[in-house]
Design goal:
The chain is α+β, with helices and mostly antiparallel strands and about 350 residues long. The chain folds into 3 domains: about 130 residues, Haem NO binding associated domain (Beta-Lactamase); about 30 residues; about 160 residues, Reverse transcriptase/Diguanylate cyclase domain (Alpha-Beta Plaits). Helix content is about 40%, strand content about 25%. The chain has a 6-stranded antiparallel beta sheet, sandwiched between helices. Strand 7 and strand 8 form a beta hairpin. Helix 8 runs antiparallel to helix 9. The protein starts with a strand and ends in a 5-residue tail after the last strand.
Amino acid sequence: MDGDLRHPQFTLGAAALGELMPMFLWLDPGCLIRAAGPTLQKLMGDGALGAHLTEVFVLRRPHALQHAQDLLRAQRLRMNLRATPGTGFKGIAVPLSSAGGVLLNLSFGYAVREAVRDHGLSDTDFAATDLAIELLYLAEAKAAVMGEIAKMAARLRGAKARAEEQAMTDALTGLGNRRAMEVGLERLLAEGRDFALLHLDLDFFKQVNDTLGHAAGDHVLTRVAEVLRTSVRGGDLVARVGGDEFVILLSGVRDTAPIRRVGALILDKMTAPIRFEGKPCRVAVSIGAVLSADRGGAGAERLLADADSALYASKRAGRARLTFLPADGSPETLAVGKLPR
């Protein structure tokens, strides 16, 4: 049979061999390509039949090729297509006794994923018994599943973070709530960092609710929250801890100068009128402040109680002012604002 590849035991035609080995190469003794499996023909393109092996492939093993016997001595072959994208192959060579040439059986090895992508291959381009494409599909399916799991985990982390943020956010003002203040205070204490604690309370807020209604009161609270937020640094904590009560934690503060500066800024901004539906909302703010540095490792309860005492010292002194309470001294007024008219 013309073109048959003959072995001592049987005769097999090139077409039948292609069914079993879609990437075989039949080389004559001079290493000219006489036949190829259908998948390999697809990859090599027109003109490969009759060409020398080295005209179509770059040999990696063996490096030099004089005649077909060099391929047999190499045992395990490595080569790449010369044409872009330079697909790589591994393979073995066996002698063909009657033809005097060699038969190469090639595969993609670990590069099968890239080869399938680069050449648009499908399962019909592989032998029916070859598990490579099935394993590739499994790998792709696993990657897809893992990708979805990763996306789901990211969504869950995002949902958890949003839930935690909402759990520590005051819904009306967008500031931290009492829980956020407690967590922030405990963190500063645990880290041993110096800080200032300011306790603020609105003056005459009840009259706003009584005369203009709770919508006006909510409007005042949101405006005050904006004043507080814009009066401190980005890393400082501002929290609404009650109806019209707020707490500010100033991290890294060891003396009263930053307290005086922030308090004066807040009192100055509070002189601007707050209007609701054209009507003035006459409020002021009283502030009490303490330093953690002069309290010898006092806990959260002591600091909050002392700041509360300083706050009420401001109210007793006439409101609209900032009072600092040392650990072992009398209340000291640091800044005075204006009462509403």
